[in-house]
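Risk register update: the risk of archive-format incompatibility is retired. Evidence:
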Amino acid sequence: MIAPARREDAAETVIRVRGKNAHDRWREALKIRQEWLDHGLSTRPADRRTAEAALTAVYARMARPKPRFTWVESPHQAIPLIAGSPTLDQLYAWIRDPRPRGTPPLASDLAMVASQLRGTLSAGVAYLDPELSAARKGKDKPWPELPPLTALDTGVPLGVVLHQGIRTALHRSLATGFREPVLRTLAGGRPVPVCWYGQQDAAWVAYYDTLHRLGLARYGPDALDHLGDWAALARSCGWWWPGEDVCVVVERPELVQTEPVPGTWHDEVRLRRGGVRYRDGWHPLLT
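Archived output:
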């Protein structure tokens, strides 16, 4: 009885999504996206109490005790403290090994926990979530990316517009436009241990939060609590490197200056040259 009811609810929601409320829902989504972009670019001092409580909850989901927290003022300041932590390539190699030696690194467990959460959230969306499967107009043609109101008026489903305009747009602003160039500068051509990005992880958090607030997704209490932990991190701190005993957490920067990304439809931004400075004076992207 549960599955048919779920399908009926989904069908009714899709009808509403494609109906006259689509423009209004998009306008609501724009306000929510701006909230999360502001968090992703925030220069306020970290809310350390909130961040540590959220990280403790995330550790508990991996059956790990509360770590000791070491706060630093920039990613650059974190580097001496994270020596020996796995890089992304090392993590992938461990995951792909059919017979890995030893216990899995914490970062592996964390990646799995976060992936499982996103899968659970996608399952709660009232239509086929484009995050799971690229939505297509026809057999081989993806939906075009157009100005959002034009897209809705020409038949692009609201769910696709929301994925483009929230998930993809915030990823362009906070990942492509912010953390990736800062990480390249930090690395200097060398591998950096894998980390999570706090406020710049807001793209996927914002996406599922938006769907929930618009009434287009239903999440169970446990999934809502878990999403709330990641939302708290995005609202409260910068990058973080999880270790078994110590979690290194970075303060938010003290200066962020952005510029529009040309040729985009969803107000994407990127860091200007020299557009980020951290609280210890580290000022990447000067050249």
